[in-house]
Design goal:
heterodimer, A: about 200 residues, mainly alpha, 8 helices, about 75% helix, B: about 140 residues, 6 helices, about 65% helix
Amino acid sequence: MEVDRELVEAAQAGDRWALEELVRRTHRSVYTCALRLVGNPDDAADVTQDVYLRVVRKLGGFRHEASFSTWLNRVTTNVAMSTLKRRTRRFAVEGAAVPADTRDPAPEPAERAEAVALARRLEALVAELPEGQRQVLVLRDVYGQSTEEVANAMGLTPGAVKVRLFRARERLKATLEATEGAQVVAMTGRRRATGRRS
Amino acid sequence: MTTCHAIRPLLPARADELTLSEVRIRADHVAACTRCAAEAAAYTRLGQALSAMAGLEVDPADGTLERILVAIGRRTVVTGPRVLAAAGASGALVATVVVARAVHHRRQTRRPVRRRPGVGRLRLRLPNLPVPTPALARAK
């Protein structure tokens, strides 16, 4: 999610078109972050709307010290966390939508392409993590917030964040290895079956 | 050399989550232990994939964008400086009218009602009995 500084400044100056364009360009990213944090599409849509209502209120105070996307991610995190405090999780994400890569189609090294392919598969696995583990993992490892920032957003100590992170990463790696192992076994089985037929 | 069991909690951590000595201990162990090296590599791969997730986006349900635009449109209309000034002035006018009408209505209802003789609140009338005085008591 890249946003021009000029567009943000125009929105800050009260340009209605600029504000709407800002929403158009960023709403998918905000929705995705909200969905990863709150865990269900309805709440994620509500959080997304609340994020922009807060953005309208606070945009004047944005000083461009961090990038707009970083600031927007923080707003999303805060709104999502307050929403979670108010509501209990209604249902788990089942069959989360397969995300599309919206980054610039610039030439990427093979490692990056592999990471993106793996990231698509990870989306569903991350959604299955316990809520507390999922949230710290998303904020720290997906959105790159510091341990202290995550602790502040979630009302935890940095030590508690580290414990949850450790468990989440360990669990995710184990699940990933299990699914990859199952896929390898399935592929080997299919090859053997086709081999026998021929 | 540190044991694999002691290194295990350090393997999933990112370098910036460890102290310098922990980073050194992990690096030394991983350089000598193929099993832990494979684990560390798997965590690195996982970390790269997780950070790549930030660039993946899920499309919200149809109508979400429109709903947001309507909501912020309402908010910006309400919070625009001119609109706020106009709303404040008209609000003050309405409040003045409402208060004035309420005061007027209250005065109307509090105006004293002339009562017809014999109509009105009941008063207990006591007969004029002689007040007992010390002299009367003595005569008894």
